[in-house]
Structure formats: structure tokens, C-alpha cells
Amino acid sequence: MGRGxxxxxxxxxxxxxxxxxxGQAKTDIAVVVHPDVGVDNLTLADLRRIxxxxxxxxxxxxxxxxxxxxxxxxxxxxxxxTICEMTEAQFRQHWIGKVFRAESPAGPKIVYSTEMALDxxxxxxxxxxxxxxxxxxxxxxxxxxxxxxxxxxxYRMK
Amino acid sequence: xxxxxxxARVATIKAATIGVALCVFLxxxxxxxxxxxxxxxxxxxxxxxxxxxxxxxxxxxxxxxQPAAPDEYPRLKITGFADLTFNTTKYVDGPRGFNEGQFVxxxxxxxxxxxxxxxxxxxxxxxxxxxxxxxxxxxxxxxERMILRLDHSDRLKVSVGRYHTPIxxxxxxxxxxxxxxxxxxxxxxxxxxTRLMPIHFVGALAEGTVPAGxxxxxxxxxxxxxxxxxxxxxxxxGDSNGTRAYLINAFLKPDAAYGLQAxxxxxxxxxxxxAPDGRDFKERIYSGYxxxxxxxxxxxxxxxxIRHEQDIGGPVTWTYAYYFQAGYRLPQFxxxxxxxxxxxxxGVNPLDAVYLVNPVNNLQEGNTLGVRYDMSAxxxxxxxxxxxxxxEGQPRNYGGFLQVCFTx
Lengths: 158, 408
Hints:
By secondary structure, chain A is an alpha/beta fold. Chain A contains five helices and six strands; from the N terminus they run αββαβααβαββ. By secondary structure, chain B is mainly beta.
């Protein structure tokens, strides 16, 4: 009885130890743009201005179409927290205010899956979105952040 | 004098007009859905990283739009704001008890990739409702803003219409959405209906942002009608004199200090006082502000100096107004609580002939201490204590205020 109990506890401990830790390294989030967007690199400040609607046009003159995952998605959280340094509530309030101030005709467009994000970003001129780097296909155009690509040391979107 | 049956007919026509207008507003959201820009059709499936929202989980408000085809225009979106406030003060100064605030509808409609219409309508309860002939309506409907804008690029956007005059940060950042602002009320220097500064501006505006080495310089330059002879109003039907008003506004949002915004503005107009007075006064307004636009902390400081001088010569008078507000979103309790404090001052020059004819309340010292509680992502409860002194030597007034405000 006693040995059985000890065995059970040991098994539980082993199982807990082998569970993925919550602090396990997160995979990088890639910034994907429409293939015709003539930009290969963005600074973190550029990305922030795009996400907050302060920058609405690419250098070519095409309007930026911001595609953001729905709330709870990791890509959205990473973008809002890493780039905007905001909470979800602050981000929503920012965009309600942005449209209300007549600074932008509409808020970001919502995409509900990685597939939808990748599909829309290739179909919409000027589009930009955030997708887990390991799920991005070869045909998608990924831009660097501060000169660093996803997977390289120092990449900041995780 | 109108005959009774004519008066009744006029009243009927007005009622019918208001009815039709309300029907249009109520029908508008349906129209917007029909145009393919619905906001709640979350039918996507959660695949990929497996964290998307399924059907029925509305992400919420402005950010909840399905990607639309590029050629689907116009794309109309309507947002609303409303509030209800309870006031109690030692001495009567403004409304008492429960006070319906403004019911505000905001419309944004993309007409093409570069042309957008923005509109803002407010419905404000009238204290003279039911009086007069024909009887005054219960609410005063007002076109607060009506802007048609062409976006050439980030560096140049040109628009025409009716604006909130961009010479005050608060006036152009929060507009009529009390839910957006931390406090219950606006600072008194930019209260709606004030005669101190022109709150609205009818004309044309050119604006844009240039990177300026990471300083992100935004400029605005405008020409318009300036104030009406009733100086609390803009010249909606036309200018009250032959001299247009113009304004210049510029501010910086440096990348290196994310959250900081600082700038200033200059406004020039010729005011013609209402008949039979009819005198003309040159008006110049200089303003500046600095804002730390984050919530931990939020700091807003703004000042304005208003200069009046009769155009045929005479004494020059200056009136100064400023406020300082600080708030802090508490990290505890799910970041739902935000205490704040505001100090404000309006020193009306007693020799200013414009303000002698169109009185402006002096505010020697105003203190506001409050807390905002965000009861949901789109509704907030605010509680304030205000203590203020209008004129040195007069009794100090104080009171408590409670507001429920929301966006929908």
C-alpha cells in the first residue's frame, strides 16, 4: 500500500516535470505584408505607428490595411503588448477614440485564423498582419523588425 | 403673428422632420450591414494557432470588422456615446440631481480608399423644453462635426466641414464622448457652449505628419468663418464679417518618448459683436500643451492666452486659462480603477469688452478629485468631488458628482 502510494506520487512528479513549462520559449511572430508592399524592414516605432493608425500609407502611396487577429490570439497579444505597450482594453479604447477623432475611417480588420490572415494579406493591397513564423508559407512576404528576421537572435516579436 | 392652425402645422412638420431624421439614424446600422461591413459576424473558425474566436464571440466595437473587398463603398460605421450624471453642490451652479448628458452618434464612412466622411450628432436635453411657441423640443439636436476629407498621403490630408477647433488638445481628443475622457466633465476652459474660446470651426483644413527624424511632426493649418456674432457659436450659415479666421497647429510625438505629445497653436479672427453693438475686435489665441498619453500615469497640461483688441484701436486685454490633470491606472484589481486629480484656472480680464458683452465665468481656482471605474470594456462609472472658487472673496462652492457613461 505504502509503496504503491510512493510510486503514484513519483509518477505524478515525473508527469508534472515533463509538462511544458508556462515560461517555455515562445515562437517568433512574423510580420507579413502584401507581396507588392515595397518595404523589407520596419522599425519597432514604424510598426507601432501602423498598429495605432498613426501611419496610414506605405511609401508607394498605397493605404495600409491592418489585419489583426481577434482577441485572445497570441499574435494579437504579442502585437499589442510588445509593440503598443498596451492592454487589450487600452488598444480597443485607442481605436474607438481614433475613429471618433476622425483620424481614421475604420479600425483594424479582424481575421479569425492564421489561414484567414495569410489569405487576406496576399489578397488585399497594402495589407499587413502578424502570424506565427513557423506557420508562414514560402510565398508570404515577411518584413524584418529593426533589421532582424524571425528566428534570428534579437528578434523582438514573440 | 402666426394663426393657431398655421402654428400647429409648423409644429407637425417639425415633428415629422425629426421623426424622419430619427428613422434614418435608426435604420443606418442596418444599411451598414447591408453594405457588407457588419461588425458581429464572427464566423471564422479557430485554426492555425488555435486561439481565434469562434462564432458568437464578438471581439468588440471598432476593431471587429470583417475584411471587406476594396471596392465596397461607401462603408458606413456608426458609434454612439451617452452618459447620465448625478450632481449635488452646496450652491446651485448648473443642473442639479440627475442630468441626462449628451446622446451622441458618430458616423464614419469611407467613400473611396482616399475619401472619408465623418459626422457627429448630439442630442442635448433642454431646460426650456415645452416652453415657447411652438413649444421647445425636449432635446436640442446639433451637428457637432461634419467633415469630408481627402487623404493624399500621411503628409497631406485636406478636408472641409465643421470641426472642433484644433487649438486645444482636449477639444480635439475627446470631442463629445465622455466615456473616452478620464473625468466626468471637460475642463471649464473648453466646456461646450463656452464663450471663452471658439469650440467649433467651419472651413477647410490641411494637415499631415512628417517623420522629422523620429519626432513625428504633425501640422494643421486652417481657414474658416471664425466665431459667429453669438460668440459661443461657429459661423455655420456664413461669416459674421468679411475677415476669415485662420489657425495653425503643430505638435510632436517623438518615437524616443512614446506617450509624449507636445505642441502649440495660434488662432486669428475678427469678431463682430451682435447688433446693436456691432463693434469689431481682433482676436488672437495662443495655446500650448504637453500630454503624457499613457494611463500609468496620464498627465495633461494645457494653457491658452486670449488677446482682444478693438480693430479701431483701444486697450489690449489678455485672458489666461489653464489646467493640469494627472491620473493613474492602478495595476491592482484588474486595472479597472483610475484615480485622478485636476487643477484649473480661468482668469477673465474684467476690462475685456468682448467678455463684458458675452460674459464668461471666472474660475479663480478649481479642484477636481475623482476615480474612474471601468465596469466593462465599454462602460465606466466615475465619482468626483469638486471644490472651486469663482471669484476671490465669494463663497467657495463644492459638491459631489457621479456619472455613468458608455459607448455602444
